[in-house]
Design brief:
- This protein is of the alpha/beta class and 291 residues long.
- The chain is built from nine helices and nine strands.
- Strand 4 and strand 5 form a beta hairpin.
- Helix 4 crosses helix 5.
- The protein is globular and about 60 Å long.
- The N terminus is likely disordered.
- InterPro entries: AB_hydrolase_fold, Lipase_secreted.
- It holds the Pfam family LIP.
- Keywords: Signal.
- GO terms for molecular function: triacylglycerol lipase activity.
Length: 291
């Protein structure tokens, strides 16, 4: 009876709270192959893994992000092998647009640039960003989310079994366009978010730093699809924006149709303006200005 009473008392205890996901922890690391040309031609001679790792959303919630780690097969003679966190430019909104997908199919244009680092013996980890290759919408141009995804991809890289990477390795971050914004946010966030990383340098090009100025420039132009995608991405990151509530029926239909598009399909929105999507001045709304 005493043992039974003890067992019942243990079973009646409240469950222990779930352990918070550690940013950068590897959820899975599956060997993969990457190619330079369509049709899976010209295999890149590296050890490669498709990663799923823990990260953090723009509002501080845990999430999971995918990416690809590339490590040269030859040794690195100068100490710990350097790691480059590479942030790609705009790829699109659908999972099929993710760089991990395009690299495995031989249609990733930026792989040629990535290869320059590999030829120097550096490891390169390429994040897919939040929602691009994982469930949920892509938080396109939500800088905090993108910066977290880049930094946590580097954290994950050093934990991959067989990759031979060190947590004390020198680290660099590089990106252009969306990737430039991501690299800039990674640099800004690193001291507080990932202080253990030995970040030695950041190269950020084509940075859309002032999103409102960029949106005004794109409004009504042939690249308006980029502005619309950014609106959808920020709305995915910050629920209080509630973009759908401020759209016309036509606006909702247009954005729903573009929700899974890759960047090459954004041209369907060419020539449109925010006024074609909403009856209010979206860019002038305080909730948007705050983001």
């Amino acid at each position: 009876m005493i043992l039974l009473s003890l067992l019942l008392s243990v079973l009646s205890l409240p469950a222990a709270p779930a352990r918070a996901a550690t940013p950068g922890a590897v959820v899975s690391a599956q060997p993969t192959t990457v190619y330079l040309l369509p049709g899976r031609l010209l295999e890149v001679p590296v050890n490669a893994w498709h990663l799923l790792y823990n990260s953090t959303t723009a509002t501080g919630a845990p999430n999971a992000v995918s990416g690809t780690l590339l490590v040269p097969k030859s040794g690195y003679p100068l100490g710990a092998r350097p790691i480059v966190g590479y942030a790609v430019g705009t790829h699109g909104l659908g999972d099929q647009c993710a760089p991990s997908v395009s690299m495995s199919q031989g249609r990733e244009a930026e792989l040629a640039l990535v290869s320059l680092f590999l030829l120097k013996g550096f490891a390169v980890v390429v994040t897919d960003y939040e929602g691009l290759g994982t469930p949920g919408p892509h938080t396109y141009m939500a800088g905090i989310s993108q910066g977290h995804a880049v930094l946590d991809s580097i954290r994950a890289a050093v934990q991959v079994p067989g990759a031979g990477l060190s947590g004390r390795a020198p680290v660099a971050v590089m990106g252009y366009s969306q990737g430039g914004a991501s690299a800039g946010w990674a640099a800004q966030l690193q001291p507080s978010y990932a202080p253990e990383l030995r970040l030695k340098g950041v190269a950020a090009g084509g940075v859309p730093a002032d999103l409102r100025a960029v949106a005004n420039h794109l409004d009504g132009g042939e690249n308006f699809g980029l502005a619309a995608a950014a609106g959808a991405g920020l709305d995915a990151a910050y629920s209080e924006l509630d973009l759908e509530a401020d759209l016309t029926e036509r606006g909702r239909a247009l954005l729903a149709d573009a929700a899974d598009d890759c960047v090459g399909d954004f041209g369907k929105l060419a020539g449109l303006s925010f006024s074609d999507l909403s009856p209010i001045d979206l860019l002038g709304q305080p909730k948007w200005l705050a983001r």
